[in-house]
Task: inverse folding
């Protein structure tokens, strides 16, 4: 009977858990998400390292990542061979991909030239580690491309099936209800950068053509970081070199034995060599006082070059265009743009759970530094007044997890009327759609009746709207529902002071319905 491979079993269990949490990180009719995919990011040492470098403080949200580093110091690079969902996916498909000669330029120090500048950039307050984090790459590809595509395909397929079965389609409704409520995405949303996210993921798969786990051994910044830590692990494989009469290890090892001597920083503890050894010569034992004959990597010039390059690159990535930044709206509770960019993992979870499709990945709205970070685009969606899901799923607290009462007071921006386009101002036509939809109980958008002259010179009684600044939280629903096609008549702009509203809209007295500053 063939023995069960514990590493493969662990990989499959964690991949199933990853996909289960991914599907659960979705609005399923509840105001809270008790278990989310952010658990994987909170156990991600690259997220922890970049967070510590950029924010220069520790958060207990990332305690699991600290534990992973401690266990890596003891056991070695086990995360890549036992837990990482992207590594598991590569192991599942690599056998179906025909191999050719390895790419020589990927060998050597390339992985250090990726990791070290990323950490150096974080030291200079530019945290871009999430762009190349393997879990984030996997999750963004699923969130922005494959999951919406699957949802659209299933819905269209089910519609065609209804037409085929005709009057018998009522029998299919319970089955579709189960799929809709537990598997499909809640919203039909397609995201900017969806193809970019998919191409990054496909490129990693394409690298398998040249070498098994090519991404993991030659590029992955998370794997490189864990490998540097794993060099100090007392758990060692013996012997460290290939047996001259066998060399079977080099054929089964996914990462470490492309050379004659085992590279401890690349060994992912899959134990394939242990099971493949016909002579039972291989063992994994703790050797606390054993000498490590391998040179400590990276080399000094690579280490210094990586750190210095981060200093020069930080100037480029820090550039923000003032006019574009004025339109960048962040999720509720984000008060400081710089702090938000230093903490954001760019995982896409907040966009996935956004109830009214308000959040989308930034392209270059706030400069290169903002790539893949969430921005509110009111013309496409708005921030639901009672929703706090984005703060619940954020793995690092970049979006604060606020109670509902505090979230209602959180300022995203301020609405401003464009009098050249708004119907009451530009066309002398009554329109109070924005006022009707404003979710603030005391109405942050109000209107007053004034006598005016229409475009034909006739006197009319016109309802002119205005914004009460002290009540407006910038949720964006007014811009979203504006009936004008193309350019909207009211727009939400970012503000420097995002302090919570001082007046509680639900407790404010409404004795003066026209109180507040008119905007």
Result:
């Amino acid at each position: 009977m063939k023995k069960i491979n514990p590493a493969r079993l662990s990989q499959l269990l964690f991949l199933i858990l990853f996909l289960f949490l991914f599907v659960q990180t979705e609005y399923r009719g509840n105001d809270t998400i008790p278990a989310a995919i952010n658990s994987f990011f909170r156990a991600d040492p690259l997220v922890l390292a970049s967070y510590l470098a950029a924010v220069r403080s520790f958060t207990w949200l990332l305690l699991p990542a600290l534990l992973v580093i401690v266990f890596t110091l003891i056991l070695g690079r086990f995360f890549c061979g036992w837990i990482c969902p992207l590594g598991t996916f590569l192991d599942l498909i690599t056998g179906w991909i025909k191999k050719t000669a390895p790419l020589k330029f990927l060998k050597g120090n390339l992985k250090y030239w990726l990791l070290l500048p990323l950490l150096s950039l974080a030291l200079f307050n530019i945290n871009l580690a999430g762009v190349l984090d393997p879990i984030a790459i996997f999750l963004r590809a699923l969130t922005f491309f494959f999951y919406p595509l699957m949802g659209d395909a299933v819905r269209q397929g089910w519609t065609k099936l209804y037409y085929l079965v005709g009057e018998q389609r009522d029998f299919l409704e319970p089955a579709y209800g189960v799929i809709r409520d537990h598997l499909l995405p809640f919203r039909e949303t397609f995201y900017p950068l969806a193809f970019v996210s998919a191409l990054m993921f496909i490129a990693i798969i394409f690298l398998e053509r040249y070498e098994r786990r090519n991404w993991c051994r030659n590029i992955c910044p998370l794997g490189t970081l864990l490998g540097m830590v794993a060099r100090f692990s007392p758990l060692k494989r013996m012997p460290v070199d290939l047996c001259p009469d066998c060399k079977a290890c080099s054929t089964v090892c996914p990462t470490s034995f492309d050379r004659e001597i085992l590279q401890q920083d690349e060994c992912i503890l899959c134990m394939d060599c242990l099971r493949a050894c016909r002579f039972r010569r291989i063992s994994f034992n703790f050797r606390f006082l054993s000498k490590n004959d391998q040179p400590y990597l990276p080399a000094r010039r690579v280490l210094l070059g990586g750190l210095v390059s981060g200093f020069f690159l930080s100037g480029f990535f820090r550039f923000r265009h003032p006019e574009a930044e004025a339109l960048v709206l962040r999720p509720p509770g984000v008060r400081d743009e710089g702090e938000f960019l230093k903490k954001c993992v760019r995982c896409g979870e907040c966009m996935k759970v956004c109830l009214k499709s308000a959040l989308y990945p930034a392209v270059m709205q706030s400069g290169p530094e903002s790539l893949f970070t969430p921005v509110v685009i009111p013309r496409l969606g708005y921030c639901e007044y009672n929703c706090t899901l984005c703060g619940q799923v954020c793995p690092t607290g970049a979006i604060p997890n606020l109670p509902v009462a505090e979230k209602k007071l959180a300022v995203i921006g301020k609405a401003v009327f464009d009098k050249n386009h708004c119907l009451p101002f530009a066309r002398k036509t009554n329109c109070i759609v924005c006022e009707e939809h404003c979710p603030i109980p005391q109405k942050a958008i109000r209107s007053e009746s004034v006598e005016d002259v229409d475009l034909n010179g006739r006197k009319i009684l016109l309802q002119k709207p205005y914004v009460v600044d002290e009540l407006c939280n910038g949720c964006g629903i007014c811009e979203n529902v504006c009936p004008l096609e193309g350019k909207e008549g009211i727009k939400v702009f970012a503000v420097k002071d995002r302090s919570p509203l001082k007046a509680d809209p639900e407790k404010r007295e409404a004795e003066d319905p026209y109180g507040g500053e008119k905007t």
